[in-house]
Specification:
Length: 410
């Protein structure tokens, strides 16, 4: 990176601090990852200087010859990777991708049906503290109280009652394969548009480890920075017939200038995701998550929500430890392990009685199953003995050893 320590020491030093933090933490926040040096270089390139309002060959300003090439490559790669007839790589974020889809298909006041936040849904799927819950009439489905898995019969029942205009599948904290076909059937039965937000699992879909929602969904949104391992950003995929509607919903309805430095970085990440190495990486993400889950299953106080994982993440119910999610996350962070507090499907209030644990970043650091198991054992020890100073000290030393043997090389 260009050394600007003299021009702006405050920002230079803060970035150095963040680099140091990332190097020295076992990062288990399921939505984070380590983008490659090429992705990061593109984001810091001269492309940030260029105003690119509109789409290739139909720009508002002159001078977009190189920009248009980049933009088209990113779009083509997204279409190739996800077998999508149409992709739009312009959304600045996952939230903006969702916003554009709603703008395309809904009028204010229309009904949407999505997964509840307690069950693992995202707040841009209709929560009242978000534009989606303020502009549209939102309804929610949860998970089965016994299995903590999606109950498609129940979702169907709710859909028949609500009659949503848009049915949304996809989650931020759900650790199992989602049956897109069952959702499609429900959407058809009630005459709804079917949208999938695959932000969390996009990398697993790219690697063919999870079914591709494009097979049946009308429209699919995603972020590019989670398991997909690209720059922070969003994208939309859809059936060809929605191309014009969605293009307009992104620009001019919800965005102005495209972030072409980010689109170039998305193109690079999408290219990386098309390689056999990425496939191996995605396979390892799941193996590492399952290795961690097996350790938690043996713990008498930590309860693994839904009893297992089929993707990159899992939620731990901490009620028997006496710790809230916030306390547990802070405690783990004190020994060098980053997680986040999480709502539990059956939690009555909104304390956040659990934590979410994910493996995309440690897998980018070359952790294998035995490293993942050791990490889970440290978590288990710490959460079972929150007041044992010697144990916490030893845990921090174990974390340090793991980190030092897995330096970030990307
Ligand atoms: N959709 C899902 C399922 C997510 O988990 C997230 C982020 O956590 C988003 C959308 C929003 O993405 P962004 O933070 O890029 O707006």
């Amino acid at each position: 990176m260009y050394d600007f320590s003299k021009e702006d020491p405050a920002i230079w030093d803060a970035i150095a601090d963040e680099q140091h933090r990332q190097d020295n933490v076992i990062e288990l926040i399921a939505s984070e990852n380590i983008a490659s040096k090429a992705v990061r270089a593109a984001q810091g390139s001269v492309l940030t200087n260029k105003y690119a309002v509109g789409y290739p060959e139909k720009r508002v300003y002159t001078g977009n010859e190189a920009i248009d090439k980049i933009d088209k490559i990113a779009k083509q790669r997204a279409e190739e990777l996800f077998h999508a007839p149409y992709a739009n790589v312009h959304p600045h974020s996952g939230s903006q991708a969702n916003q554009a889809v709603y703008a395309a298909f809904l009028e204010p006041g229309d009904k949407i049906l999505a997964m509840s936040e307690h069950a693992g849904g995202h707040f841009t799927h209709g929560q009242k503290n978000n534009f989606s819950g303020q502009l549209y009439e939102s309804h929610f489905y949860g998970v089965d109280p016994e299995t903590e898995l999606l109950d498609y019969d129940k979702i169907r029942e709710i859909a028949l009652e609500v009659k949503p205009k848009l049915l949304i599948a996809g989650a931020s904290a759900y650790s199992h394969i989602i049956d897109w076909h069952k959702f499609r059937e429900i959407a058809d039965e009630v005459g709804a548009i079917f949208m999938v937000d695959m932000a969390h699992i996009a990398g697993l879909v790219a690697a063919d480890l999870h079914p591709n929602p494009m097979e049946v969904a009308d429209v699919v949104t995603s972020t590019t920075h989670k398991t997909l391992r690209g720059p922070r950003g969003g994208l939309i995929l859809a059936k060809e017939k929605y191309a014009e509607l969605l293009d307009t919903a992104v620009f001019p309805i919800s965005q102005s200038g495209a972030l072409e430095h980010v689109i170039a970085a998305k193109a690079i990440a999408l290219g990386e995701a098309l390689t056999p190495e990425f496939h191996q990486y995605a396979v390892q993400i799941v193996k590492n998550a399952q290795a961690m889950a097996n350790v938690f299953k043996r713990d008498e106080k930590i309860r693994l929500v839904s009893g297992g994982t089929e993707n990159h993440e899992m939620t731990l119910d901490l009620n028997a430890t006496g710790l809230t999610g916030h306390q547990a996350a802070e405690l783990l962070y004190s020994v060098g392990i980053a997680t986040n507090k999480e709502l539990l499907p059956l939690e009555k209030g909104d304390t956040m009685e659990g934590i979410r644990v994910g493996t995309p970043t440690i897998t980018s650091r070359q952790f294998d199953e035995s490293d993942a198991e050791i990490t889970a054992e440290i978590i288990s020890d710490v959460l079972n003995h929150p007041n044992d100073d010697q144990l916490l000290h030893d845990a921090a030393a174990q974390v340090k050893a793991l980190i030092e043997s897995h330096p970030i090389t990307r």
